[in-house]
Amino acid sequence: MANRLAQSQSPYLRQHADNPVDWWEWSPEALAEAERRDLPILLSVGYAACHWCHVMAHESFEDPATAAYMNEHFVNIKVDREERPDIDAVYMRATQAMTGQGGWPMTCVLTPTGEPFFAGTYFPPEPRGGHPAFSQILQALADAWQNRREEVLSSAGQVLDFLSTDDDFGGEPLTSEDLDRAAATLVKQGDPEAGGFGDAPKFPPSMVLEFLLRQHARTGNEEVWSIVCRTFEAMARGGMYDQLSGGFARYSVDRFWRVPHFEKMLYDNALLLRAYLHWARALRAHEGSEEQLALAERICHETADFLLTELRTEQGGFASALDADSDGHEGTYYVWNPHQLMKALGTSDAAWAVQLLSVTGGGTFERGFSTLQLLQDPDDPERWERVRARLLEVRAERTRPARDDKVVAAWNGYAVTALAECGILLDRPDLVDAAAEAATLLWDLHVEPGFVRTSLGGVRSEHAAVLEDHGAVIEAFIAVLGATDDPRWLDRARHVADRALVHFRAEDGGWYDTADDTEALVVRPRDVSDNANPSGSSALAHGLLALAAVTGDHDVRAAAVDCVECAAALATGAPRFAGWTLAAAEALHDGPAEIAVVGEVAGPMHRAALGLTAPGAVVVATREGSPVPLFEGRQAIGGHATAYVCRDFVCALPVTDPADLAAGNEVRTGTRGS
């Protein structure tokens, strides 16, 4: 039986187009079919780079007998969580409530009207480790639907009641004492030996690290600085980072960042690129070690190159992910054994590389293979570059992991912001050009007409943008404005902000994750916690703060404050899940600084301004003047590039020497822009 996924725009859904399961995409028609046939819905949610999604597909969805049972007793719906984070959010909350955990693939069973009454994640094809087989689960659920309908509907009603009960999204402003306590909590949760927070598995804490960098800039807290540096260095030197071509994997399965789940996600690499850039500038300001500074800058260059060479699409956007698997195994493309190194490099270089890259006879991964780690800088950099180039040549002959070419607005927004800043600070015009091109794609294809979350091959999807998309794209447009002196980006940022302020507001002053003019689900999702990527409200806080910094719009700033306050309880109670909110709060406490550079773009003064560690500072530059409000009344002095450091449009005396700006030698005055 041919399912309906072959023409889907989602690469993940198309991966299942040849399954014998009669899959539907999420749609009113699918729910109507369940109602017509009086069958429950089996909802399967995953994403293209998900290793365990592939495993369950191969074991169960490709099995004719399992598929036949699913087709007879369920209406089966497949959802790409990256396209539909709203659906994922609703049913992941149900899964966590019913099972105490979550993850992908996510398997939920629903009434024909969408109320969940059973949930789980991966199910094996036969009983294993105390877990029933997937076929047993299906049979029990079909029997319950047919013979214990009232019990099922009662359970679904209880779950729906839980989902319909909002958390308390009211909040108070986060004080400096609140921020200091959050930082102290994170220090206590930090791993003093391996970096990061908590035990395995370890996810790259990019948003928490950004908060801690800003907190350290304000307080000089050395305990914070220690855990930040330890974490950045450990991630960069371990097997979670691709030591040959750059780019970070999704997470480490072990405490020491040795062995990752090998999928590479755009959002991780974009957020980490910006975080490493900010670590590098903090190392300069803090007079950190030269070795660490060289490491931070190398990771920035390599990760930026990874985005451009591995994830950039023909249309100028950035693809969502690279798969974990190739040739039927996870990590095959990336791992090595001593014999492979010997064959590629010869006896002498292989023996040297085995030691340098921590490749062992027994393997640090599976089947005798090792990930590549670079725990110490090479004692012979030229030899390392020669070895690295040769290993890349050999690796290029392997089967490459598949790429999910889907362009996601929010994640492209994070990439645009990181690349724009990197392009100026690292003197890489190619990165600024790439940022502007991706931002143009977002505006031309995603935002107008009607903001959609995803596209593929230059074709818009029908999936409405969520709150995170709006926040990330606003910040991205301001970043491109700051890097290019093109005032159109301000108008575009305002356009996106206007829509966010009108369509996502909640009655209590907080924010919903979906707009009020988009498809209604059984509940309207609303979550302030940062997980793999920023929450909608924290992303919007950053975008609105950047917009307010260049316009002086107090209503926009007030909305950013609301975004922070609605997550205040989470930020103080569980700061590991509110790093992006806490980072925005640090920016609010510092102003944030609004820095106008007049007389140059991408020059020494512009770099000095972006090199400041003032929390959340927003930097814009213009060659000859600009309609951007922050530039009103600001002029280059004596023909020199001139920087104005302002807060709430009240500026210090202008600075004409980049060295003075870098040293913080601006003088506060009470003069407000005209």
TrEMBL record:
<dbReference type="InterPro" id="IPR036249">
    <property type="entry name" value="Thioredoxin-like_sf"/>
</dbReference>
<protein>
    <submittedName>
        <fullName>Thioredoxin domain-containing protein</fullName>
    </submittedName>
</protein>
<dbReference type="Pfam" id="PF03190">
    <property type="entry name" value="Thioredox_DsbH"/>
</dbReference>
<feature type="domain" description="Spermatogenesis-associated protein 20-like TRX">
    <location>
        <begin position="3"/>
        <end position="163"/>
    </location>
</feature>
<dbReference type="InterPro" id="IPR008928">
    <property type="entry name" value="6-hairpin_glycosidase_sf"/>
</dbReference>
<dbReference type="InterPro" id="IPR024705">
    <property type="entry name" value="Ssp411"/>
</dbReference>
<dbReference type="InterPro" id="IPR004879">
    <property type="entry name" value="Ssp411-like_TRX"/>
</dbReference>
